[in-house]
User: What shape does this take?
Amino acid sequence: MTVTVRFAPSPTGKLHVGNIRAALMNWLFAKREGGVFLLRMDDTDQDRSEAAYEEAIKTDLAWLGLTHDRFERQSARFADYDAAADDLKKRGLLYPCYETAEELERKRRLQRARGAPPVYDRAALELSEADRAALEAEGRRPHWRYKLSGAPATWTDLIRGPASVDTKSVSDPVLIREDGAYLYTLPSVVDDIAFGITHIVRGEDHVTNTGVQIEIFRALGAEPPAFAHHSLLVGADGEALSKRIGSLGVERFREEGLEPMAVLSLMAKIGTSDPVEPRASAEALAADFDFAKIGRAPARFAIKDLQGLNAKLLHETPFAAVADRLAAMGAGPDAGLDPEAFWLAVRGNLERISDVSLWRRVVLGPVEPAVDDAAFLDDALQLFPEGPLDTETWGAWTGAVKAKTGAKGRALFMPLRKALTGEQRGPDMAALLPLIGPERAKARLSGETA
Assistant: This one.
């Protein structure tokens, strides 16, 4: 059996952290098992689905590196859904209902007042042909409900363990709206059967829906796939992310200069027994993936954790992985830099790759030096070594300055750093000084902008 999973977003909005986590779990599991990752656009809601959102979803997944092996679009498959619906109607498993939204809400209020669960009472099953004809003559159009068996739907969840949904406690679900539009449930099952989906990995908010879908799978002559329901994300304060989700989108992360592997590393590890650490590739994350590691408690997401992980990832990134990006940012050989020496010098001070621009300016100028003690800097200039600079130069030079001026510690190093870089903190000066070079260094020690 080839493991086949699907990520099925609706193109009615952009991807956010909750979507990413679901997509990533499916992708990691498929890659670990040598399986197939299907991207399916659930675009049956033609009024709300937009081509621009579909393209944005594809762009976001590509940026993250979550490439799909197969692509499908539900709007191309209405004939298959119609065939399945007709079959269920003929067998009495899909039945027409005529209540309005207001009438249904009134029924639910009465049930609650009586202490009964607000489950649909199946009144529509008591309607005769004449009753239905009369209602349709009034202008009413039916919505269609699936008739649940009332028996428990059970499965062994790959994350939650033994699971069960008592279908007696669930309203017969509406599968087709009165305007003829399909809701999520039936098309999803039809597609999962047609595309050979072996595992459905999704959020725990779908647990009840899984009980319903298990019955529909079997009604359509198929055994249900395996299911894994992961916990949902909450903020660092434990509150739901729903009110903040707009600021937690993939597009926003990309615009803010965060690294895709920082996003993936965090989303793969929060809520698991593994430490949250940067990984170099999605394939490395796939090798670690195991449903047994995923906890049932809500996974806490904090943007500061993502930002911190992003910085840590950059601090560990080898030059070869960023060489092209550095060249594109003007920090390559064409700029007169040794790009590898530059990267190794500055990467420990980066929070985002865009911070490279600051240190490129510090190295290549122009920099306006900060001069607190001109006499001290004049002594340092007189002692500045001749010849090529290397990583040993800084230590030898500052030792000579210390011997002449008596300055030590912060009083020795800070005036030199501020004069040479215009900054109070930054990369190790032993690595930075050779990149600045003797001419710029001497000019800055003289108080010149260089």
